[in-house]
Amino acid sequence: MPLDLTQLFPKEEEIPAAYALAEEVHQRLYLSDGKMLPWNGNVHTVLSPICVATPDGLKRKVIGTYPLCEAKEAAAALDAAVAAYDHGRGEWPTMSVAQRIERVEKFTHEIIEKKQEVVKLIMWEIGKTIGDSTKEFDRTIEYIQATIDALKDLDRQSSGFTMEQGIVAQIRRSPLGVVLCMGPFNYPLNETFTTLIPALIMGNTILFKPPKHGTLLFYPLLEAFKNCFPKGVVNTIYGRGNQIIPALMESGKINVLTLIGSSKVANELKKMHPKVNRLRAILGLDAKNAAIITAKADLKLAVQECVLGSLSFNGQRCTALKIIFVHRSLADEFLSQFTAAVNQLKFGMPWEDGVSLTPLPEPHKPAYLQECLADAKAKGATIRNENGGESLESFVYPAVVYPVNAEMKLYTEEQFGPVVPVVPFDDLEETITYLIESTHGQQVSIFSNDDEEIAALIDPLVNQVSRVNINCQCQRGPDVFPFTGRKDSAEGTLSVVDALRSFSIRSLVATKLNENNKHLLNEIIDSNSSNFLSTKYLF
Length: 539
Prior knowledge:
Helix content is 37%, strand content 22%. By secondary structure, the chain is an alpha/beta fold.
């Protein structure tokens, strides 16, 4: 049946009161050097992906505005972070681990009070369902608590002394300096905090730029940052990234760059730093995760996992399945079951019960996806599901495209949206070759019930991607597992424990083991005069 999208978007009065914003959020304050500073300059108008039906047609709903600061304000925020770190002598980097944990715990309690406000802003800013927006907030709190527990474990392991070859030493982890933190729009709270929180709790000072889509949701949290940390430890910068970030990098004062975004942007930023050897980068970048469905797969399971893997949050996840290889003998049946499952997905507004498909936050995305579909059709593919690719304003109905080949954009480009390329193959070597030649190397999913077949794929593929998933979709969690990628997909490793290591360096205090030095060490420890050299045990 033809897809009727004319009733997709509501009139203003049809928005349920429980999910409507009480009022537009017009941010005129930003946090810098421990103060909430007023902004009277240019602002950016935030348009929701959710359109509203008006007498003049569909209009993206205005949900607020935020400051468009300039290079001057960004430089002042950088200076504040540099001063707070003070070459490692500042209050925050020299504070004991227990004291830093206490501040982060206080911060966590304060932001929990803002949960409903933040969840609603996630939904309105990026079109994520209310259920998934709530899960994102809850998962973020769980991540912070897990990070605190992991740091306690790490500190307990470091509370003793090591004695080797007449040398006694205590080995701990110390901060790196000023961290420039930039998160993604698709998980604006969770993935931003998976870098910001470990960087912060390890004693670094932070320069934080919210993502372009998903900025206002941080506004309710700024007071908590201000109240819980010493001045200059957390500073927010707003504005056009291409106007304010280059000068920050060129200053050479940034010690750590953490970005979840595109490899192209990351490469450009790293080149701007005058002393690249002094810059540590923790990056989550592009991904084109593949599913490989062999002739010996459980087709029902493969369909179930691939629908979730390719279309959860409209396919706007770095861990999404962005290309599916299916053995030619199963291709027709797979497409039949897969398209039937896609047709069962409910589309609509993010507050509706059971909705899976929602509007897209990036204004250019619908047009880009149409380009990909036109390119694929011109080179021999067809859209296999009914109504695939139909669109209205910010909404695009999923398109299942088959047969995709190496000449098409969808074969190599990360579409980051609700388009599912399906490639037939005859020999498993074809899929291995694809992953070898790909510039991406995050994850892969293998679907097969044959142990020898799976084993034959595992050994070459673990050297191409960082995670091989067997009979399940690609994913980030659990958060205790390492999350990284090869090639252009990542730099550095994130997980609850790995992130603490990524944002710190092993440092040690050592001396020759003799009576005089033993006396000195005991005096320092007994007097509690050093936060680094200490045998305090955290519980």
